[in-house]
Amino acid sequence: MVDTIVFLVAAAICLTGALGVILARNPVHSALMLVMTLFGIAVQFVSQEAHFLAAVQVIVYAGAIVVLFLFVIMLLGVDTAQNLEIGALPAQKWAALCFGVGSLALTGYIILAVDNPVTGRPGMGGAIDETANVRLLARSLFSNYVYAFELTSLLLVIAVIGAVVLARKPVKQLPEEAGR
Amino acid sequence: MIVTTSWYLVLGALLFIIGGVGLLVRRNPLIMLMCVELMLNGVNLSFVAFSKALGDIGGQTVVFFVLVVAAAEVVVGLGLIVAILRRAPGSTADDLSVLKG
To answer: Which residues from chain A sit within 8 angstroms of residue B17, using beta carbons?
Structure first.
């Protein structure tokens, strides 16, 4: 019973935030609505005993990514209201409509048609023990997926260097550039 | 009523749909990046739901990697947006079609 209430409240928070992201006219409001959705997802993670991921979700997403979004919005001064209607390609609107309605219909069909989506095949990554989520995740990460883990560190270094190079202001122009 | 795996999958699917529709209808590149985050979170929720249902920690490991890649994607994407908007203030995703040459 408690599970159901927690799920329904968190799902309502998630969906409200998600709709707010795409319907808000001000980018700052969108970013704050995104925080709401991410917190709702973190609650769903806790209720599924993925405690480490819930903590990481709050720290990385709400603490770093959304703050980065807000930082860029404030830095660029694009926090002005936008009309949602102007200039969108007509074909794009139809594509969005088809995508939304089609996916919703497919989801509804799956709800009706499939009773239990789980195949019952045993997992390959190690069983879940509810009391030792962090230990299991760490063991999986540093044994089976250790090369992928090392590659993510490389990816992060590349991303940081790329961001610095992209966002840096050009220090001085070359002489022939300045002459044009 | 008992919360089954399907409920989480449906919620993840709804988040994915909302993110996808937002990606198609909004033109502000920042909002489009946020919609990509919404789609990633919907998929993450499905991964964790399957991880719990199958008793397999691998799903949560994948979610961890998705988080890292999402962080890298946002960093590079925001760097690009800053670089573009500094040259052409107020440009939208439609204006960037000049990049196709």
So the answer is: 99-100, 103-104, 107
Q: In which residue ranges of chain B is pLDDT below 50? A: none
Residue contact B64–A137, C-beta within 8 A:
yes
Q: In terms of C-beta distances under 8 Å and separation of at least 24 residues, what long-range contacts does A119-126 make, across chains too?
A: A121/B54, A122/B54, A122/B55, A122/B56, A123/B54, A123/B55, A123/B56, A123/B57, A123/B58, A124/B56, A124/B58, A125/B56, A125/B57, A125/B58, A125/B59, A125/B61, A126/B56, A126/B57, A126/B58
Contact B82 A148 (CB under 8 A): no
Cβ within 8 Å, pair A49-B52: yes
Number of structural domains, chain B? Answer: 1
* CA–CA min distance B16, chain A (Å): 9
In this complex, do A100 and B17 lie within 8 Å of one another by their Cβ atoms?
yes
Please report residues of A whose CB lies closer than 8 A to that of B63: 50, 53
Looking at CA atoms only, how far is residue B46 from chain A in angstroms? 10
Q: Is this model's pTM higher than 0.90 or not?
A: no
CA atoms within 13 A on the CB side of B68: 16
The boundaries of the domain holding residue B25 are: 5-90
Mention every residue, 6+ apart, whose C-beta is less than 8 A from residue A73. A27, A28, A31, A79, B30
In a domain, B97, yes or no: no
**What CATH number is associated with residue B34?**
1.10.287.3510
**Chain A residues close to B15, C-beta within 8 Å:** 14-15, 18, 37, 41
For the segment A17-49, what is each residue's pLDDT rounded down to a tens digit?
999 998 888 888 999 999 999 999 999 999 988
Residue B62 lies in a domain: yes
- Max Cα separation, chain A? 73
